[in-house]
Automatic annotation (TrEMBL):
Pathway assignment: Amino-acid biosynthesis; L-leucine biosynthesis; L-leucine from 3-methyl-2-oxobutanoate: step 2/4
Reaction equation(s) it catalyzes: (2R,3S)-3-isopropylmalate = (2S)-2-isopropylmalate
Annotated [4Fe-4S] cluster binding sites: 347, 407, 410
Subunit and partners: Heterodimer of LeuC and LeuD.
Record protein name field: 3-isopropylmalate dehydratase large subunit
Gene: leuC
Species name: Cyclobacterium qasimii
NCBIfam families according to UniProt: leuC (TIGR00170), PRK05478.1 (NF004016), PRK12466.1 (NF009116)
């Protein structure tokens, strides 16, 4: 009997037709949409005289360029206002479920899917957003698509897609105190580069991965894209089932029991051969931070920026260009570098566990005077929990202010832009040139590292405050 990976099992169960020497016609269980990549898809759908084939399989929310203050007022930015209005109109016309601004379950699309229980093991999930891979934490095949493909899913609930190669990344051992899932994924990307996963779907495995919470697993899968992979996934287990149980869209009663029985079969067969495998020890991972202009340019917070030794002329030129943009030099240490902004949020680290870790770290302290801090919850649910748990009060006492849900400064499509030349240590997923605003300089790190930077005003290893840390479980 053929040995199959988790990826194989889900993929093969969703193939409608295989085209010889071509892609598969691939069925999509859930389609998430937002205000930026859906308007043209809806427009073209209607031009063809088509409707959304299965509206009950589509879920919408505005998130990418919505404001994070005064969400109860008219959106000032004309483009943002128009996109949100179009989303409302299109969802109403086609019968699509919308979690709008101000409603109980509004938030970043990749945050609300899991917290509502819409995301479930064994599904295929797409969205017009590259970080759809977040949902892979539940044992799903989830990936981003373009606007024309959004239209294709609207019309047919299928997509034309070639099957990716399979990679497995195993992380065994126990993480040290103050080391989080963000550090794991930044470490992996630094090891295999920002293009090392190109052409692959990645399964994450090993004792360090299975020990993580669901929210921490989402961070890992979210950034699979940042090593060039099509997506990433983690086999569902008791942690997954416990997270989903009782959620609004999760199965209930006998249906729950049936679902769990099926979900337990969603794992890679013993002896399955992958196209590529990597193995890492958790003990080797320390708090990480990026220094360049792609997520693969990362080092340990207490490490030094790599030198140009061994680089050819082309690599050297590109490397120096990146460091010049950041205002850094080869071989120098990042510790003690003055920072201007910190950002806690995004579909990578805007969940309640992220806010909890920041709040516990800053409790009883004050943020540095030179730091402007943006703390943006990933959803209204996260915002409500932060208020209820006293997190907001703790943050305010430390000089921070919680904003309202949205993608915010992750991609700076709204007003939350880092000014040109300023440094931001961010919990988001990308540090490309100008990603957080024209001329902005972004360093990616974990929420704990960001909290340490916010308090000291400079790049700091959070383990310097070791007695106050709570380990991610």
């Amino acid at each position: 009997m053929e040995k199959k990976s988790l990826f194989d099992k889900i993929w093969d169960a969703h193939v409608i037709q295989s085209i010889p020497d071509g892609p598969d016609v691939f069925f999509i269980d859930k389609h998430f949409i937002h205000e930026v990549t859906s308007p043209v898809a809806f427009l073209n759908l209607e031009k063809r005289g088509n409707k959304v084939m299965f509206p009950e399989r589509t879920v919408a929310t505005p998130d990418h360029n919505v404001p994070t203050i005064d969400q109860d007022k008219t959106i000032k930015d004309q483009l943002s206002r128009m996109q949100v209005e179009r989303l409302r109109e299109n969802c109403k016309r086609h019968g699509v479920e919308l979690h709008d601004l101000g409603t109980d379950h509004h938030g970043i699309v990749h945050v609300i899917g899991p917290e509502l229980g819409i995301t479930q093991p064994g599904m295929t999930i797409v969205c017009g957003d590259s970080h759809t891979s977040t949902h892979g934490a539940f044992g799903t095949i989830a990936f981003g698509i373009g606007t024309s493909e959004v239209e294709m899913v609207f019309a047919t609930q299928c997509i034309m897609q070639a099957k990716a190669k399979k990679m497995r990344i195993t992380v065994d051992g126990e993480l040290g105190k103050g080391i989080t899932s963000k550090d794991i994924i930044l470490y992996i990307i630094a090891q295999i580069s920002a293009s090392g996963g190109t052409g692959y779907f990645i399964e994450y495995a090993g004792s360090a991965i299975t020990a993580l919470s669901m929210e921490a697993r989402m961070t890992i899968c979210n950034m699979s894209i940042e090593m060039g992979a099509r997506g990433g996934l983690i086999a569902p287990d008791e942690t997954t089932f416990e997270y989903l149980k009782g959620k609004q869209y999760a199965p209930k009663g006998e249906e729950w029991d049936k679902a769990v029985a099926h979900w337990k079969t969603l794992k890679t067969d013993e002896g399955t051969v992958f196209d590529l495998e990597y193995h890492y020890n958790a003990e080797d991972i320390e708090p990480m931070i990026t220094y360049g202009t792609n997520p693969g340019m990362g080092v340990k917070v207490k490490g030094n920026i790599p030198t140009t030794d061994g680089m050819n002329d082309s690599e050297n030129k590109s490397y120096i260009k990146s460091l010049d943009y950041m205002g850094f030099k080869p071989g120098e240490s990042l510790q003690g570098k003055k920072i201007d902004y910190v950002f806690v949020g995004s579909c990578t680290n805007g969940r309640i566990e992220d806010l909890r870790s920041v709040a516990q770290f800053v409790k009883g302290k004050k943020k540095a005077d030179n730091i402007t801090a943006w703390i943006v919850p990933g959803s209204r649910e996260v915002e409500k929990m932060a208020i209820k748990e006293g997190i907001v009060q703790t943050l305010e006492e430390a000089g921070f202010k919680l904003r309202q849900p949205g993608c915010s400064a992750c991609l700076a499509m709204n007003d939350d832009k880092i000014p040109s030349g300023k440094y931001a240590v961010s919990t988001s997923n990308r540090n490309f040139e100008g990603r957080q605003g024209p001329g902005s300089r972004t360093l990616l790190a974990s929420p704990l590292t960001v909290a340490a930077v916010a308090i000291t005003g400079v790049i700091t290893d959070p383990r310097d405050f070791i007695e106050e840390l709570v380990q991610e479980k």
